[in-house]
Amino acid sequence: MAEYVRGAPEVAVIRMCNPPLNTISDVMLRALSEEVNRANIDPTVKAVVICGANGKFSAGADIRGFSVGIEKNTLSLESVAALIEKSEKPFVAAIEDIAFGGGLELALGCHYRIANMKAQFGLPEVKIGLLPGGGGTQRLPRLIGIPTALDMITTGKYVPATEALKLGLLDEIVEENPFEAAIKLARRILGQPVGPRRLSLKQTPKLPNMEAFLHEALLKVKKQAPGCLSPEMCFRAVEASVYLPFAEGIRKEKELFLLLLTSDQAKALQYAFFAERISKKWMLPNGASWKTVSPQPIRKAAVIGLGTMGQGIVVSLVKAKIPVVALEKDKKHLEIARKAIKASLERETLRMQQKGKTLDIHKSKLLHFTLDFGALKDVDLVIEAVFEDMVLKKETFCKLSEICKPEAFLGTNTSCLDIDEIASITNRPQQVIGTHFFSPAHVMKLIEIIRGQHTSPTAIATIMNLAKMMDKCGIVVENCFGFVGNRLLSSYTEQTYFLLEEGSTPEEMDKILEEFGFKLGPFKVSDLAGLDVGWKSRIGQGLTGVNLPLGTPPRQRDGKRYSPLPDILCENRRYGQKTGKGWYLYDKPGGKIAKSDPWLHNFLQNYRKAHNMTTRTITQEEILERCLYSLVNEGFQILSEGIASCPEAIDTIYLNGYGWPRHKGGPMFYASEVGLPKILTKLQKYAEANPDIPKLQPSPFLQKLVTLGSPPLKNWPSLVSPQQSKL
Ligand SMILES: CCCCCC/C=C/CC(=O)SCCNC(=O)CCNC(=O)[C@H](O)C(C)(C)COP(=O)(O)OP(=O)(O)OC[C@H]1O[C@@H](n2cnc3c(N)ncnc32)[C@H](O)[C@@H]1OP(=O)(O)O
Questions:
Q1: Backbone phi and psi for residue 459, each to the nearest 5 degrees, phi listed first
Q2: Which residues form the 3-hydroxyacyl-CoA dehydrogenase NAD binding domain (predicted)?
Q3: Is residue 21 in contact with ligand 1, taking CB distance under 6 Å?
């Protein structure tokens, strides 16, 4: 776990060795402490360099260890950092590539820190529901001051070496491996006193307006992830570094760390961390998988259709340094898109500069705007982002088939349409794949990658690799109407409309679901996205509009309950924010501040009267359960149909594309925590009361899991009937 060697006659080297990321376990801590003691007592050793094997310093504590629990007599990370700091011999941290979490805390215990140019630093514990429990909340503010330390610790963001040097976190940076430079530094400082380098002996630098600053900072932290404990606990620990002496600050840090360690939120956030990694590992029934199939290089891509989605996709590709041909149907739309993309890239350039990275959009020849389909003949990938209309999509793919080189991949950015139908019009269905981006596409992490029946494993590997290059989270799912995300969403929104009919209000439901943890409630989301989007889709499906057969009962389709409420709003041109009114009222078209709208409440009353519905008071419990359990129920159905490979994939989709509160793990994790028997019983109750709502009928797979004694979530995929497993 920790090697002890000589780097120079008077310099000992302690190398952390736990491949691939040198994560810190109990065993590693013991080994480190032994080697630090060995160096301390060896009179021939005058200085020590601590580094990591495998080209990495350390990714911090082994997160898997937290779920097992930390044993009482476990050596604490802080005690090892303190052992290093107290040494009379100078310790130099030679940081290669990463120093995260406990890894950075160990480095903060060292007297000097040197890193390579590529290195990144961070205390990301907040993201896994914890706080830096190895002295980081006390040492970092003393080193770099409250504002930056607070920002790093409460957001968990990573800073690059150049910025770390400016902040004073590092003493030196070098181009390549910092090991040799660390040995040189260690020799240079031999004999110099280490006392002034001990962070525990320093005061946290004062700010003239410390109290006001902290007050503002706390408000910001509370807004960051409403309902999530760890950001505020991180704040409290850092605040202690201002008001308490070091030893007391450490006690406070430990007290808060232990409080978080056993919390449900930490469990959920750590689950989410691993869920994202598990769900990237796609595998097909024929054995092809992320391990065995190589991606093809995408040297040049094209995007067709430069509306909001297309623009975001172009920006994402450029940010990944992939040359893009951006194509529109006419000059006017091309010019609008050109301006919007340029402005967006300029904002991105600024943001990246602030992060110490570069994106030189001016010098680069990454973008080519055109009206000419001929410009697509040499691209390796096309992502089509035209309107959500099957006829238009098929026309586009027919053209692409003729123009693009045979090996080019053809992606379609659709949120629900049939990939196989689109592929069927092409001369290369094996190269056709769904690439469902989320709006705004240059910001949102998720891409649902939809496998059609002919999509080749190479196409999947290529798009998964592209997602990685764009710093996005690609999840492979099967082809069905709405795929995974929108299928779950439609069960949830359907309930919100029914509850509205029965007596609730947009304000009430938004409040309840925002308190649950969604950034925005369903009606605010609908106003933001535009009600017309769903309306067009329902018209296309023949659920409303001119294609609806005469005599169809207004609140029934195919014998099932249907709510025409959103359709009626659209018929009244209430599309949401863009028209200044939707479920709420805005001060002008494009306005963002939602106000309660007397028109809507009046309309709802009249609607209920017209349909002979008695308005009833609905409890918060019923609102939450009907909305969330119907969504989760669809998740079980999706698993049983083999549309998603595992519950982790569904959760990752919901966390990255639909605003599910991360500290609640994801819908399937949430279901497992609530308890499957309770979910089943409640669904049965609601289904009995609403026999015309099939989405409330418990999924047979949920029933099977309950019959089997509610096995842990990780076992669910193995219980799906093998005939259904497609992924
Ligand atoms: C007994 C000790 C008590 C100590 C108590 C003191 C408390 C200390 C707090 C901490 O240090 S908490 C940990 C803080 N560190 C992190 O949160 C880092 C998390 N990791 C990352 O951000 C990324 O993994 C990375 C380091 C940036 C690397 O990213 P990359 O995309 O290159 O690879 P991944 O696919 O993410 O990871 C590869 C592989 O490694 C697993 N892994 C990564 N970090 C950890 C970790 N800290 N603990 C356990 N496992 C980790 C990851 O799950 C992947 O595993 P797989 O099986 O190959 O999918």
A1: -60, -40
A2: 300-479
A3: yes
pLDDT at residue 302 is higher than 90? yes
pLDDT of residue 356 exceeding 90:
no
Mark whether 621 is an active-site residue: no
Q: Has residue 403 been placed in a domain? A: yes
DSSP structure string for 414-447: -SSS-HHHHHHTSS-GGGEEEEEE-SSTTT--EE
Do 336 and 423 lie in one domain? The reply is yes
Regarding whether 167 and 189 lie in a shared domain, the answer is yes
Check residue 361 and give its pLDDT. Answer: 62
Over the stretch 584-628, which tens digit does the pLDDT of each residue have?
A: 999 999 999 999 999 999 999 999 999 999 999 999 999 999 999
In this structure, what token pair is assigned to residue 283? 């595998």
Give pLDDT tens digits for 218-245. 999 999 888 999 999 999 999 999 999 9
Which residue among 277, 279, 281, 289 has the greatest number of ligand 1 atoms within 8 angstroms of its CB, and so is best to mutate? 277
CATH number at residue 509: 1.10.1040.10
pLDDT of residue 333: 96
- pLDDT for res 359: 66
Cα(152)–Cα(648) distance, integer angstroms: 28
Residue type, 87: S
Give strand pairing partners of 122.
Answer: 100
pLDDT at res. 5: 87
Point out the ligand 1 atom lying closest to the alpha carbon of residue 70: 1
Question: Do 623 and 518 touch, CB atoms closer than 8 A?
Answer: no
End residue of a domain, out of 566, 587, 611:
611
Total domain count, the chain: 4
**237: Cα within 13 Å, side-chain hemisphere:** 35
First-to-last C-alpha distance (Å) of the chain = 37
The pLDDT score that the predictor gives to residue 71 is: 62
Identify whether 335 is a catalytic site residue.
Answer: no
Nearest to 39 by CA among 64, 70, 65, 3: 3
Atom of ligand 1 nearest to the CA of 75: 1
With a CB cutoff of 8 Å and minimum separation 6, the contacts of 577 are 527, 528, 530, 586, 589, 590, 591, 592
pLDDT at residue 73 above 90?
no
Residues 534 and 580 in one domain: yes
Question: Looking at ligand 1, which atom is closest to the CA of residue 128?
Answer: 17
12 and 87 inside one domain: yes
Q: How confident is the model at residue 547 (pLDDT cuts 50, 70, 90)?
A: confident
pLDDT band for position 132 (cuts 50, 70, 90)? very high
Please work out whether the CB of residue 62 comes within 6 Å of at least one atom of ligand 1: yes
Find residue 91's DSSP bridge partners.
Answer: 48
Mean pLDDT of the chain: 95
Catalytic residue among 105, 448, 478, 622: 105
Query: In this predicted structure, what is the pLDDT of residue 72?
Result: 59
- Judge if the beta carbon of residue 93 lies within 6 A of ligand 1: no
Bond from prior residue into 20 cis (ω within 30 degrees of 0): yes
Q: Is the CB of 124 under 6 A from ligand 1?
A: yes
Ligand 1 atom, smallest distance to 20 CA: 40
pLDDT tens digits along 602-611: 999 999 999 9
- Residue appearing with tokens 């590997």: 461
Residue range 141-151, pLDDT digits in tens: 999 999 999 99
Give me the DSSP letters along 608-633. HHHTT-------HHHHHHHHHHHHHH
Same domain, 606 and 626: no
Cβ burial, residue 338 (10 Å; 0-12/13-18/19+): middle
Can you tell me whether residue 173 is helix, strand or coil?
strand
Query: Does residue 409 sit within a domain?
Result: yes
This complex has an ipTM of 0.97
For ligand 1, whether the C-beta of 77 sits within 6 Å is: yes
Single out the residue of 342, 426, 338, 424 nearest to residue 382, CA to CA: 426
The mean pLDDT value for 451-459 works out to 97
**Range(s) of the domain holding residue 534:** 504-611
Pocket test for ligand 1, best of 58, 63, 280 (most atoms within 8 A of CB): 63
324-327 vs 473-478, strand pairing mode: unpaired
